[in-house]
Structures are given as C-alpha cells and as structure tokens.
Amino acid sequence: MKIAVLPGDGIGKEVVPVAYEVLKVAMPGAEFIQVDVGNERYVREGVAMSPHDLETIKACDCVLFGAITSPPGKPYRSIILTLRKELDLYANIRPFRSCAISPRKVDFTIYRENSEDLYMGIEEITKDEARSVRVITRKASERIARAACKKPGIGKLTIVHKANVLKADELFKDACSGVAGSMGVPYEDMLVDTAAYNLVRAPEKFDTIVTTNMFGDILSDEAAALIGSLGLSPSANVGDKYALFEPVHGSAPDIAGKGIANPFAAILSVRMLLDWAGKPEMARAVQSAVDRTIESGVLTPDLGGNYTTLQVQSAILKNLESLI
Ligand code: NAD
Fold this sequence. Notes:
Blueprint lengths: L1 E7 L3 H15 L4 E4 L4 H7 L5 H8 L3 E6 L11 H8 L4 E7 L9 E7 L9 E3 L4 E3 L5 H12 L7 E5 L5 H17 L3 E5 H10 L6 E4 L1 H15 L6 E5 L4 E5 L16 H13 L3 H16 L13 H15 L1
Parallel strand pairs: 1-2, 1-3, 3-12, 5-10, 8-9, 8-10
Antiparallel strand pairs: 4-5, 4-11, 6-7, 11-12
Helix pairs in contact: 1-9, 1-11, 5-6, 7-8, 9-10, 10-11
The structure holds nicotinamide-adenine-dinucleotide (NAD).
C-alpha cells in the first residue's frame, strides 16, 4: 500500500505528523510519500499544488490529509476541492461517536455528497453581483445514497434537504428515497433547518444522514460540537479507486504554531484508513488507544486539558504499543 501524506497548512502540520507516527506503527509495510501542498507553499513558491504533485498523489492508493488554509481572493482553486474532484472522491463519510468526555451521547454518521452542489466553482462575479450555481444531479445523488445505504449495520437513513424551497433538493430527495426504497433501508426525510434543530435537541435519534455538499459541511461542524470538539471528528473521502482521510477541522490559524492542536481527529482518520485498507483489527486497536488516552485525561485545551500535541502523541503511541 502506497500512502501520500499531505499535512497542508496551519495545524495540519502539527496533527498529521502525529497521525503519521500512528500509521507507521499500524501499517509497518506501507510506503509513505510526503507531498507539500497548500497556501504556505503558495506564499513561498507561487504554487499551491503542481501537476507533478497531483501525479505523485495519483500514483498512491490513498491519502492522509491535514488541512489547507483558503485565503479569500487568492487566484488558485481550493486544494481539497481539486483533490476530491481529481480522485473522484464522491462520498464524504463523517462519523460522530461520543467518547468518555463528550457532552452528549451520540453515534451517527453523515454521508455528504462531495462532488457537486455550490462547491463546483461555477461562479460569476462582477463588482455589484455574484452568482454561484448550485448543481444537483440524479446520478451523484443516487451514488451518495447507495454509499450511505451500504453503511454496515445501518438502522435508518435520514435524507436531509431543502425541498420546500429548492427544486434541486426535490431531485435529491427523490433520488435518495428511490435508492433507500430499492435497497430495503428504512428512511425518512427532513428539512435541513429542522435537522439542525433536531441535532441539538435529540441527536441520539439520528443513525445515518445523507445530504448535499454544503448542508453536510455545515451540519458536520454542529455535530462535532455534540461530541466535544472539532478535534475529535475524523472523515473519509471515498471513491471507487482512491480514498483520502482527513480531520473535519480546518487549519485553525488561531492556534497554529502553539503546539496545542488536538491530534485525535487526525488519528481517528487513520482509524478510518485502516478499515478502508482491510485492517479492522488494527483499526480497533487505534480506536482503543484513543479511548484509553482520553479516559486517562491526556487532553489538549479544546477538551479542557492542558497537554500539548506532542504529549498526546507520546501517550497514544504508548497505549497503541501496549495493545498490539
Ligand atoms: P477550523 O476548523 O480551522 O477552526 C474552527 C475552530 O475550531 C477554531 O477555533 C480552532 O482553533 C478550533 N479547532 C479546529 N481544529 C482543532 C483541533 N484539532 N484542536 C483544537 N482546536 C481546533 O475552521 P476556520 O477557523 O473557520 O478555518 C480556518 C482555515 O481552514 C480557513 O482558511 C478554512 O478555509 C480552512 N478549512 C480547511 C478545511 C480543509 O482543508 N479540509 C476544512 C475547513 C476549513
């Protein structure tokens, strides 16, 4: 297995090295290729990701990614959006599971359509008017619905949309209902505003959510607050050939360079990588190592602790080594 490692910008450069150490222990036979992409490289060299970088990444099986800073007004397209498109990573899978210190008890997964919606970059901007085109196709909607319905042990699918106002969402709802019906998965549909309310009011009622790109993006951060921090929320971007694993959070410029970023989301993204790579036992060991570290109170400031990123790394590696 060949894995591209892309720390990116800001705290990506702090949490990905920790996840990389975990990955090296969990997959000793893997080959790792470091690729420097992102805004910090753009500022330094005038290029955020070169065609050669993309070829290097495409020669790998999957990617471990940190986060990229997207400064407004810069003339390059978002790296993560480019990678999702180039690698055809159509399903963004974001599990939200409570841990020992979570404020709420939740266990659900958001399947976010990853290839279209307002994030396709079809935009026109003049001095006084800006238009962003929202594209929803039946093909992409059915594809993400199929991915969600295949979630192991799925109980109920909640299709989240805004079909009372938007025709595009009528299509999304119809496509997802059709797939869930034909696959025999129990389903309901919910307006996105109602879903945002219910996620706070009764999050335990959700099992699997399927939604469009932007709604999934927004609801994910809300869901991360339910489990305690963005620093606890991993994700997988999966296609038919490649996969990319990344924390849900961004580059967090407000804490970058302070050595206090929470690396658990990046480490749990490694857990998802291991499951995808067919190493479920090692994935469980990584999960247990994270759980033990949290239970022993080795926590970064976002979780109420006063440990540094590197102290969490030491604790997690010690726990992992005792488990395998
Ligand atoms: P953010 O997710 O970077 O941070 C939001 C808040 O959560 C901040 O207060 C931050 O300190 C905190 N936080 C996030 N991750 C944390 C961690 N691991 N440990 C402790 N605290 C953590 O969102 P933002 O500040 O709105 O965005 C910053 C930059 O990241 C922007 O340029 C944005 O475009 C980019 N971004 C990139 C991605 C990506 O690359 N996939 C995703 C989201 C945002």
